[in-house]
TrEMBL record, chains A, B:
DNA-binding region, residues: 40-59
Protein name: TetR/AcrR family transcriptional regulator
InterPro entries, sorted: Homeodomain-like_sf (IPR009057), HTH-type_TetR-like_transc_reg (IPR050109), HTH_TetR (IPR001647), Tet_transcr_reg_TetR-rel_C_sf (IPR036271)
The keyword Transmembrane is assigned to this record: no
Pfam families reported for this sequence: TetR_N (PF00440)
Residue ranges of domain HTH tetR-type in the record: 19-77
UniProt KW keywords: DNA-binding, Transcription, Transcription regulation
UniProt keyword Transcription, yes or no: yes
Length: 201, 201
DNA sequence: AGCTATCTCTTACAGGTTGTCAAGGTTGCG
DNA sequence: CGCAACCTTGACAACCTGTAAGAGATAGCT
């Protein structure tokens, strides 16, 4: 038995032409939805230099397109996280690198600032929230074992809190209430304060 | 000069009947949009026991309805905040009360967990984010002056961070990854850690 | 009680968006 | 070259938002 009833459709052979269209569509969606999350399929298609029906030829629905976009973004994100070796650097340093990767990611994918644009299939389960937080959680857990971080708060919660804090900081920048530099500084300091310290009793 | 060119349309006399409809509509919108942010006007109207056109008779557009809903929610929120005297209690205690008011608010207005449902008129300026954070900022500023809180981070940022943290905690509950009790505890502890302490150098 | 302004309901319409379908032209690849 | 895969055009149904006019019901005032 090779692979009977699982989500592994044979990665069917595509023509070079088709893959070019798919890339153009995903790229257009990233840009257009980034600045206008409620843009129409027509807008996305036009930006990609393609007809609306061509978009539907590759993505069965708008939600499917967004999901694919998020999955591609998650893959990039993971690659960046793998490049910075979070598992060997000292925890505080690793945390700073994690945040750097996040800033890089948010700059490229501003869409992800408003996570609930069309009401995803299941509001919570996207590739990002399934795959990124565990990395950070592992990092924080390591820091708690080495004593660099306090252990009075569960690592899973801290991971989500840190990621959330970064999104809040990014929103401050988008709202024009802080410069990028200030936001990064505030975020790093707040994050260290949240994770570090000897506040347990 | 009494009031020439400002947003003060003479609060025109409404029939009791009309006000009842408006209340029913706002209430229905609160409930329906709370569990399904992309519900149609028809759905809201039906839940309110009213026709769709009646909704449009009172609210010129969907966005206007959402704005009115948020304004009503903000008024409630402010009333709750006024009831808990944040300006006299010791800062740590006052902060706990502020968070309590927040939980109460989020329980009643789950809509506000996904702030960017239809793409608000201006993404950032709603009554909530204009009026609630300053209260918290004042509280934090007081705590920083009395020495209860650390002063190395600006109060305005801490205010937004605390409110954001609470929304993250609420999202954890909504996602089934924590109980209400756990979330409240984690949120309070994290918040105190963010604000308090002697980490300045 | 009666009158009137206000409110609601019904019916209808225009415009936009999402999906779907079929026919025909074009391009990549063996 | 030839075929299958791909793109395009045009058309369609369904839904949602917003607007409009007229008939009927209701509240408030005299």
């Amino acid at each position: 038995m090779i692979d009977s009833s699982e989500a592994a459709p044979p990665p069917r052979r595509r023509r070079s032409d088709a893959r070019r269209s798919i890339d153009a569509i995903l790229n257009a969606a990233r840009v257009v939805l980034g600045e206008r999350p409620d843009a129409s399929m027509e807008d996305i298609a036009a930006t990609a230099g393609v007809t609306r029906q061509t978009v539907y030829a590759h993505f069965p629905s708008r939600d499917a397109l967004v999901v694919a976009l998020i999955e591609a973004a998650a893959a990039e994100y993971l690659a960046t996280l793998d490049a910075a070796d979070l598992d060997t650097a000292p925890p505080a340093e690793a945390l700073a690198r994690f945040l750097d990767a996040g800033w890089q990611f948010l700059r490229r994918h501003p869409l992800l600032l408003s996570p609930t644009a069309p009401g995803a299939p299941r509001p919570n389960s996207n590739a990002l929230s399934d795959v990124v937080p565990p990395r950070l959680e592992r990092l924080i857990l390591r820091g708690q074992r080495t004593g660099d971080f306090g252990a009075s708060l569960p690592a899973a919660w801290l991971a989500d809190a840190v990621i959330g804090l970064q999104q809040i900081a990014a929103a401050q920048v988008a709202a024009g209430r802080a410069t990028t530099h200030e936001a990064e500084k505030l975020c790093l300091e707040s994050t260290l304060r949240l994770c570090g310290g000897e506040t347990s009793r």
